[in-house]
Amino acid sequence: MLDHHPKHVPNLFIMLPTLDEEGALSEVYSRIPFHELNELGFNSRVVIVDGGSTDNTLNIAEGFGCEIITQWGEGKGAGIRQAFKRFKELNDDVLVMLDSDGTYCPEEIPRMIKSIPKGGISIGDRLHGNLDSDAMTRTNWIGNHLLTWLAVALHGKPINDLCSGYWAFSKEAIASLKLNSMRFEIEAEMYTSCAYQDIPMKFVPISYSKRVGEAKLGSIKDGTSIARKLVIRRIFPTPHEE
Questions:
Q1: Residues of 156-170 as b/e, b for ≥16 C-beta within 10 angstroms?
Q2: 211 in Cβ contact with 136 (< 8 Å)
Q3: For residue 46, what are the β-bridge partners?
Q4: Were both Cys, which of 22, 135, 137, 215 would link to 56 (CB 3.0–4.6 Å)?
Q5: Nearest of 48, 50, 37, 49 to residue 11 by alpha carbon
Q6: How far apart are CA 189 and CA 52, in angstroms?
Q7: How far apart are CA 88 and CA 98, in angstroms?
Q8: How far apart are CA 163 and CA 16, in angstroms?
Q9: What tens digit of pLDDT does each residue of 83-120 get?
Q10: The pTM of the whole model exceeds 0.85
């Protein structure tokens, strides 16, 4: 008997958070391996989550035909949560997020996707990957190791690189995440949610390069916010969703 139901083609939601990234966005977009992703069986959409760019970022994104989400709150966490909401509205199948500043390698998207455990998340691991010598300041390198150590000490679930901005998610994982972060502590909160919602995580060694343009992450202040979020989630594992 013939099957008249068309085969479901999975949709891939590629999320690029932006804030004044005109210097790197064109190159990042042009390096996304659409042909390889198509061969893996995915329809790909690129969604820009913009935190209030005042340069040419949005014009560049429109030129590439990207969907643009103008986020409703300041900060990376607010934008990511808004993109997750859009992902669920579209009923897409897989979401991959990477920063649009040229630090992460878009060519590694297929490997990130293929590494997602069933119902889980794969996280790019810069600290055990191909880290360019000038990509991370010594302060940031030490801070990343300390925060990663603190995360595991408090929450008990292994992670190799807490502050990585390169993640790939199954639909089930995004449905399970419980988040209320507004700023750069979002990755730490995603990790704690994985720990308490028992979402499987896989760590994928990745390449990491020096960013194009000005850094947005302030070493000590943002590191303190991340550490505070880790402590709060140890006391209150589930956030009040905002």
A1: eeebbbbbbbbbbbb
A2: no
A3: 14
A4: 22
A5: 37
A6: 23
A7: 19
A8: 16
A9: 999 999 999 999 999 999 999 999 999 999 999 999 99
A10: yes
